[in-house]
Amino acid sequence: MKKNWLWMIPAMALTLGLGSCKSKESAYKAAYEKAQEKPVVETPAPEPVVVKPVTETPTSTIKTSNEKVTTVNASDASKLKLFNVVVGSFSMKTNASGLQESLVADGYDAFLVQNPQGMYRVIAGSFDERTSATNLRESIKSRYPNRFNDAWLLIKE
Fold this sequence. Notes:
- By secondary structure, the chain is an alpha+beta fold.
- It has helices at residues 2-19, 25-37, 93-105, 130-143, and strands at 64-67, 70-71, 83-90, 111-114, 120-127, 152-156.
- A hairpin with a 5-residue loop joins β4 and β5 (120-127).
């Protein structure tokens, strides 16, 4: 019987000790009232972003190159027009394909062409008018400022 009392004493002490650790309702109420006393600071709404229309850049500052190119995939042949926006140039097809796939995932109608020297060009868009190609080039440069600063126009021979 004494053995049972020896076990009950620490159990009761533990129960009383843990029971006294609970937060009191008055502590919660005091914290709530203190929070209610603080002034509410409203942050101003952010200013709306104004998108300016892309205007044509003087053609003298745009890098262009005349090349004879062919599409890598025959199904892309109808996409190739006179003015093409090049965002990447690679000697390995797998690297070019990776960039093309990421552009397609971002909503561009990108495709690959190859020049006679074997370089793969990633075309983000192809147009019959130079103005449209220039506008797309500027749009891509502003959307990806650190990635495609060196985008250029390829004029198909």
